[in-house]
Amino acid sequence: MCYAGSGHGLLETTGVQAPPSSVLRIEIGQVPLELCFQDDQLLRAARDRYAGFRKCGSPIWPVTVRAAKKVQPGSESVQPEIMPKGPGFCFHLNGAWLRMGTAASEFGGVGSEYTLDSLLRVLLSMLLLPQRGFLLHAATVARDGRASVFTGRSAAGKSTIAALSPTGSVLTDEISLLRFVDGQWYAYGTPFWGEFRAEGRNRRVPVAGIYGLVQSADGRAEPVAAREAMRLLLPNVLFFARTRQERQQLLETIKHVAETASVYRLHFRPDATFWGVIAG
Q1: In angstroms, rounded to a whole number, what is the distance separating the alpha carbons of residues 148 and 268?
Q2: Which of 162, 78, 91 is nearest to 121 (CA)?
Q3: Would the pTM of this model clear 0.90, i.e. be above it?
Q4: Do 165 and 158 touch, CB atoms closer than 8 A?
Q5: How many CA atoms lie within 13 A of 218 on its CB side?
Q6: Domain 133-279 bears CATH identifier 1.10.3470
Q7: Would you place residue 19 in the very low, low, confident or very high pLDDT band (cuts 50, 70, 90)?
Q8: What is the 3-state secondary structure (H, E, C) of the chain?
Q9: 47 has which bridge partners?
């Protein structure tokens, strides 16, 4: 079904089944989404962008995607769209918007697949919150059945790490997804990539270690205690919630990963020798 804004959460706009051709079902971090498009061009772009994350079966979270309106035929300019009033979490992004209800969400003013990508990140950060999961500015590399997560802000070295990793090992080079499932932390591939343009791999791998990146002339990995691990992780977490309860949920999740995962500060040179430091 397609949904649009209303009272308790988001309710159906038309009361009829959406045409199958307008629906794209994907799964990121074991979060199934059903994206219902009203614009064919945007649907085609999304199919290409999320090809590796397509999912068949029953969706859990429906999202109506409304494209930005062109000012006139053939024009590249778009007309800002006003978000319908109503309860729920709301987020604005350069003329586009997201509204999340209790059972569905709606995107409006989506001018390109890049805007859609950004709104999906916001939505996922909210959906993961009660599931002990979060999005992190990090590159994730899987080797020997274990994941190493390399976190840092822009220019910290995430793309460098990805470029120096074995072919096919990069789950993501920019936005990683971590969740605590069945008693352990897992890193999931995402379709959210950066300069390296690793398109992500739709799989999950147990986390071996989380590394805060520090470019240095020497190479060493320093274990950090839980309190310092929280300081290392928090600036790199993607989070958009506004209520005190939601912020507390996030802090509890980051505290848990800091206490239960192996977290390090990785001093590294921009060459493949860092793998020897990690292995040691």
Answers
A1: 14
A2: 91
A3: no
A4: no
A5: 4
A6: no
A7: low
A8: CCEEECCCCEEECCCCCCCHHHEEEEEECCEEEEEEECCHHHHHHHHHHCHHHECCCCCCEEEEEEECEECCCCCCCEECCCCCCCCCEEEEECCEEEEECCCCEEEEEECCHHHHHHHHHHHHHHHHHHHCEEEEEEEEEEECCEEEEEECCCCCCHHHHHHCCCCCCEEECCEEEEEEECCEEEEECCCCCCCCCCCCCCCEEEEEEEEEEEECCCCEEEECCHHHHHHHHHHHEECCCCCHHHHHHHHHHHHHHHHHCCEEEEEECCCCCHHHHHHC
A9: none
d(CA 158, CA 80): 35
Q: Return the bridge partners of 178, or none.
A: 134, 187
Q: Where are the domains of the chain?
A: 3-131, 133-279
pLDDT tens track for 142-161: 999 999 999 988 888 888 88
Which pLDDT tens digit goes with each residue over 76-125?
A: 555 455 555 566 789 999 889 999 999 999 999 999 999 999 999 999 99
> 92 to each of 58, 71, 115, 140, 253, how far by Cα in Å?
29, 20, 11, 29, 25
> Side-chain half-sphere of 209: how many Cα atoms within 13 Å?
17
**CB-CB contact of 3 with 37 (8 Å):** no
Q: What is the pLDDT of residues 234-263, one digit of tens each?
A: 999 999 988 899 999 999 999 999 999 999
Task: At 161, list the tokens.
Answer: 């790490």
How many other C-beta atoms lie within 10 A of the C-beta of residue 235?
A: 11
